[in-house]
Amino acid sequence: xxxxxxxxxxxxxxxxxxxxxxxxxxxxxxxxxxxxxxxxxxxxxxxxxxxxxxxxxxxxxxxxxxxxxxxxxxxxxxxxxxxxxxxxxxxxxxxxxxxxxxxxxxxxxxxxxxxxxxxxxxxxxxxxxxxxxxxxxxxxxxxxxxxxxxxxxxxxxxxxxxxxxxxxxxxxxxxxxxxxxxxxxxxxxxxxxxxxxxxxxxxxxxxxxxxxxxxxxxxxxxxxxxxxxxxxxxxxxxxxxxxxxxxxxxxxxxxxxxxxxxxxxxxxxxxxxxxxxxxxxxxxxxxxxxxxxxxxxxxxxxxxxxxxxxxxxxxxxxxxxxxxxxxxxxxxxxxxxxxxxxxxxxxxxxxxxxxxxxxxxxxxxxxxxxxxxxxxxxxxxxxxxxxxxxxxxxxxxxxxxxxxxxxxxxxx
Length: 412
Ligand code: FA5
Ligand code: MG
Known about the structure:
Blueprint: E1 8-10, E2 14-17, E3 20-23, H1 32-35, H2 49-60, E4 65-67, E5 73-75, H3 76-79, E6 99-101, E7 104-106, H4 114-119, E8 124-132, E9 144-155, H5 158-169, E10 177-180, H6 196-217, E11 225-233, E12 236-246, E13 249-259, H7 261-266, E14 272-280, H8 281-289, H9 302-305, E15 325-332, H10 340-351, E16 355-365, E17 372-380, H11 389-407, E18 410-411
Helix pairs in contact: 2-8, 5-6, 10-11
The structure holds adenosine-5'-[phenylalaninyl-phosphate] and magnesium ion.
């Protein structure tokens, strides 16, 4: 589709996104590269693997209401405060998030919409969407990815909880190797306001629901191993993460837990008890479709998109990659802190999707002056065409300029 107005505009004093204007302040750090992704909505493009996975998950959670069109532009209240994330929590920092201003941010997780889901009055719902985090650059990290949130609650009543647990346990599912040796411990406790029995029942319901979903999704994968580990989130307790063994490495796919009762009470649901999970769709899609690079999901190349069919999981057949262009940059650091995320972000600002990965290849401290020197290797490559050395040199020159200006480094 085409729109006559640009979806976003970065002005001197404010930023406009889909018709809404936000004043800039010292928190503003959204970039054109990131804002250009906001309307892509891969989770709603029927032939994109992200959307195919979303639908398969939705069909696994029968009777769950689905919300897939909440705007990714949210208040810091929605993204943090509503979830009882402490004011000084590191997940709030400017180096981890994309802020329009002090009060408005691109959501960093679908949990930002838990209260909206609760306000709908539904007791079982799923929320999917694009989420944004400033992060490193490589084959499995991209500043935009997709999550699906699950939320379920019930009367805090032991007999109702047991009946409901029994109901879902009676549904048959394929078998896979699944390890869960987590036990309740002081570092990952039952909430003081919950009885151990009720918390255990809702946790068993959560774990069974997630294990069933994973078993169904991965029914055709050979030798799949899944494990549960303890975790921490300010908005759940106890909390866990689920990991999948993929190509010899444990890949974290979701976080979950028993919902912080303050969230339930805040929504007027004092006599209910609930669970929630948040799962990354790219990680699942990479395993299930055999997609080697997270940037491929964004490819507009027909050789990518035409390989997929709604409702179906099939292995991706790689098409020839265009050659990379590799450039190094080294510099002496000034005094003070060095944030790699800010550096990566700056490169992305200049190179957009042409940057495939950024890797620290040398970290050297001068024995006499104590000055630290870093060397990064930047791998440039296009998903859809050949890049020329001239155009990459031009980008690299800009990167050098901006790195020098912004971080006051001394280029070598
Ligand atoms: C969260 O985002 C919590 N909101 C999840 C949650 C929801 C917990 C509800 C409890 C209750 P976390 O930051 O761990 O947690 O991210 C959840 C999942 O998103 C990860 O397990 C992973 O699958 C995916 N994910 C996180 N960061 C990235 C990334 N940079 N690239 C791709 N996927 C990612
Ligand atoms: Mg995590």
